[in-house]
Amino acid sequence: MATLAQPTLEEMIDPLDVSRAELYREHRWQEPFRRLRAEAPVYRCENSSFGPYWSVSTYKPIVHVESLPDIYSSSWEYGGITLADPQKDAEFIMPMFIAMDRPKHSEQRRTVSPAFTPSEITRMAEDVRRRTTEILDDLPWGETFDWVDRVSIELTTQMLAILFDFPWEDRRKLTFWSDWAGDIELVHNVDTRQQRLQHLFECAAYFKNLWDSKKDQPPSPDLISMMIHSDAMSDMADNEFLGNLILLIVGGNDTTRNSMTGAIYGLNKFPDERAKLENDPGLIPNAVSEIIRWQTPLAHMRRTATQDTELEGQQIKAGDKLALWYISGNRDESVFPNADKLIVDRENARRHLAFGYGIHRCVGARLAELQISVLLEEMAKRRMRVEVQEEPVRVSACFVNGYRKLPVRISKY
Length: 413
Description:
The protein is of the alpha+beta class. It contains 15 helices and twelve strands.
């Protein structure tokens, strides 16, 4: 009796499954998202390494979902904020305020938000500029070096160390923990899950010592002290403490660091736009928003439907998970004409979705913009042109849209 031929792996892959890590590692995500936006803005992907999910790929429905947090939940109890479902092992459940619904989300967010008020941003600006000038002045001219390591990681890790009042000599631990925490591909392998858990426990133990050292001290402007002296976060369980640490570390590290690298890569890719910026540094504030839009350092956030509902004519069932693809919404041509191009004087660049929308919009958005602005301003003062020497090594994952390495060389314009 003849047997039916089994489908090949290639035949089983949904070409519109945009959760595939290789699309981001190989920088091939643009075309499938272009198809999704044109053919199926709300698309049901049945087969993926993360299970079935809905892709929401255009600007308007992303904003719609973000505007209805009671219908589309962020809570860790339903699965959290990434396509990777929490593992059955209880140790992997790490509640954090971005993965909570109201009212607890509001209470915890309110605790840390004073660290990012306009007055605090102004207070930190001088220190941000001092540290940026030190790093830029230490770079070699005419020699190839890794921009990610020497500039992007160092600037953002220093900022995190200041926000947490973290021991300066150990600040690179923050980068290490952020890389392990933000890589959702690790959930596919038992061994890497255990390694990740071990590193996160090391992170928790380190911060527990910091917490204990500050517990009986007067309030100070760092994030740990703010948590200690708040009603909403002073009595967190260990896993919730770890979850909020990971949120603040990844949020403060991966997003800004990858936008700082994306700025260099994008301005090299579009030399006409780089020339605009070099000729008119007054464009820098707008260029920062455009760089963040074009890079979109976090590709998606996940929501879970709490009830049966309808979205763009599609029937969404309670329990369905939806990926809000910020990386695609920021390339929606109906909102951003010529969206694949970085345009430093784009009129509506600030409408980007890279910081999210609604109640979960990034609490540190203004600080990220400050750090990138100061970097570009100090480069302009030095007439520093950073030239990419070869294609970057990229993060192989559908959550953090980032860079591992970018070889560059500096020249003067």
